[in-house]
Write a structure and sequence with these properties.
The chain is an alpha+beta fold and 434 residues long. The chain is 55% helix and 10% strand. It is built from 17 helices and eight strands. It has a six-stranded mixed β-sheet. A hairpin with a 5-residue loop joins strand 5 and strand 6. The protein is globular and about 70 Å long. The chain starts with 5 loop residues before the first helix and ends in an 11-residue tail after the last helix. The C terminus is likely disordered.
C-alpha cells in the first residue's frame, strides 16, 4: 500500500481520530465536558443545572466512579465536577489534574445546588444536553453521536454554535466505510513507523501505566489480580489480567489517562494490553509490537463501525477479537490466519451484553481476550467455525457485517430491557453517592 493512496491516508486519519487520551470512563467525562463548556458559556457559577441524557448515557454513567472526585458516581457528580473544576479545552481530559480543594468543592456544590437529571426526549442513542442557569441567564451545550461532538451551544436563546445533525453517528469523522480486513492487514504491513509511532506509542505507554496501577492497588473486584492468583502467570493469563486490571482501575476512578478506541477506554486497553504481554513473551521488536497493536485497533474500529458506539452489545467483545488478531499478526499470521481468528472469536463471545460501565467490565474483558486467543489457537490446531454455524457466514467481512446487524438492530429491544432493569429501582436523579 502506497503512503499516497487514499486508503492509507484515511486509515491514518482514523487512527488519529480514535486513539485519543481520556481521563476516566468516557461517558461521565462527556457529561463533565458538556458541563464545563456550559459554565464557560454562561460566564458564572450556575445556580441550577439540568442534564437531559439518552438512556445509554444514563446506563453507562450510573455505576462508574468519576475520576478526581474522591469517589463520586453518576451523572450529577460528573456535571458538578465539570462545573467546578473542568477545563473544557482539554475535552476528554477535562477532569485531569484537579487539586484536592476543588474535589471538596464538588461535593459542597452538589449538596447545595439543584442538579436534575432527566431522560432525553428523543431517540438519539448518544445524547447529552446540559443546561445551566444563573439569575435570568441560561446556557445550553448539546453533545450528540460521539463524546466530543458538540452540536449546539446557546445562551439566553441565542444560538452561538450549531452543527448539522443530519449525518449519522460518525458525522465529522473520516469515512470508515472503506475498512475491511484485507486492506487493514495491507496497511499494517506497509505503514511507515513514523506515521504511527506517536499514536500507538502513547497508547502503549498510557494503557500500560494504568494496567500496572490496577495490579498494584485495590479497584473494583480486582479481576486482574484474581486471574493471576487463580490461574498462574503464563502469557495467556497475563494478557487477560493486564487488560482486566486496566479496567479495574479505570472503572474504580483511577486518575491516570488511557488512550481510547471507538470512544472507549476499556476497548483501547483491551485492544492493546494483551498484545504487549505477548510481545514481551516473544521478545518482539518495537516495530512488530506497534504494527500488531495498529492491526488490533483497526479491527476493533471496523467491527464497531457496524455496531455503533453505544449499544446492548459489549464493546470489549470487539476489542478482544482485535487483540486475538493482533496476537496472530505478532506471530507472523497472514490474511487467512487473521481472518479465521476474527471469525472464530466473534462466534464465541458475540451476545455478551453491555449493562453499563462498572467493575464487571473487567471480567467481560477477560472473557473477550480469552476468546480472541482461543480463536487464534483454533486455527493453529486446524479447527474453525464454518459458514452456517449460527451467525458465521462465508467471508470474514460478511461475518463482521452480521455481527453489526445483530448488535445494532437485533439487540435494540435488549438494550431497552437492560436499561429498564437498571433504572427500575434507581431512577435518574441528582444524587451524588460514594
Amino acid at each position: 500500500m502506497d503512503p499516497n493512496d487514499k486508503i492509507y491516508q484515511d486509515y491514518l486519519k482514523i487512527l488519529k481520530e480514535e486513539l485519543i487520551p481520556a481521563t476516566g470512563c468516557t461517558e461521565p467525562i462527556a457529561v463533565a465536558y458538556a458541563a464545563a463548556k456550559a459554565r464557560e458559556v454562561l460566564g458564572a457559577l450556575p445556580e441550577r443545572c439540568t442534564i437531559a441524557a439518552s438512556a445509554n448515557i444514563i446506563k453507562n454513567v450510573k455505576s462508574v466512579v468519576v475520576p478526581n472526585t474522591n469517589g463520586l458516581k453518576g451523572i450529577a457528580a460528573a456535571c458538578a465536577a465539570g462545573i467546578i473544576a473542568g477545563d473544557a479545552s482539554k475535552k476528554l481530559e477535562v477532569l485531569a489534574d484537579i487539586e484536592e480543594e476543588a474535589k471538596a468543592r464538588m461535593r459542597t456544590y452538589s449538596d447545595t445546588h439543584s442538579i436534575t437529571v432527566v431522560p432525553a426526549d428523543n431517540d438519539i442513542i448518544f445524547y447529552i444536553a446540559v443546561t445551566v442557569k444563573s439569575g435570568t441567564d441560561e446556557a445550553t451545550v448539546v453533545i450528540e453521536q460521539f463524546h466530543t461532538n458538540i452540536t449546539s451551544v446557546t445562551r439566553n436563546g441565542e444560538t452561538l454554535y450549531e452543527l448539522s445533525s443530519e449525518s449519522g453517528e460518525d458525522s465529522g469523522l473520516t469515512d470508515r466505510s472503506g475498512l475491511n480486513v484485507r486492506d487493514i492487514l495491507d496497511f499494517c504491513d506497509h505503514v511507515r513507523m513514523d506515521d504511527i509511532s506517536e499514536v500507538i506509542g502513547r497508547q502503549i505507554d498510557y494503557n500500560s501505566a494504568i494496567s500496572e496501577e490496577g495490579l498494584k492497588k485495590n479497584y473494583g473486584a480486582n479481576i486482574g489480580k484474581v486471574l493471576l492468583r487463580a490461574y498462574g502467570n503464563d502469557v495467556r493469563t497475563r494478557a487477560r489480567a493486564a487488560a482486566a486490571a486496566g479496567s479495574d482501575a479505570r472503572m474504580g476512578g483511577c486518575e491516570k489517562p488511557v488512550v481510547i478506541v471507538s470512544g472507549s477506554g476499556n476497548q483501547g486497553m483491551t485492544a492493546s494490553l494483551p498484545i504487549i504481554e505477548y510481545a514481551k513473551e516473544f521478545g518482539a521488536t518495537r516495530e512488530q509490537l506497534y504494527r500488531a497493536v495498529c492491526l488490533s485497533d483497526l479491527v476493533t474500529i471496523y467491527q464497531k463501525m457496524g455496531i455503533g458506539r453505544l449499544s446492548a452489545y459489549c464493546g470489549a467483545v470487539s476489542a478482544g477479537c482485535g487483540a486475538g488478531a493482533g496476537i496472530a499478526y505478532l506471530n507472523g499470521g497472514d490474511y487467512d490466519v487473521i481472518a479465521h481468528t476474527i471469525v472464530n472469536s466473534v462466534a464465541i463471545t458475540s451476545g455478551i451484553i453491555c449493562d453499563g460501565a462498572k467493575p464487571s467490565c473487567a471480567a467481560k474483558i477477560s472473557a473477550a481476550v480469552d476468546a480472541g486467543i482461543l480463536g487464534y489457537q483454533m486455527y493453529q490446531n486446524d479447527q474453525q467455525f464454518f459458514s452456517g454455524d449460527g451467525i458465521v457466514t462465508k467471508g470474514v467481512d460478511n461475518t463482521i457485517h452480521n455481527v453489526g446487524v445483530l448488535a445494532k438492530e437485533g439487540m435494540r429491544e435488549t438494550d431497552r430491557e437492560i436499561i429498564k432493569i437498571m433504572l427500575e429501582k434507581t431512577e435518574p436523579s441528582a444524587s451524588v453517592t460514594n
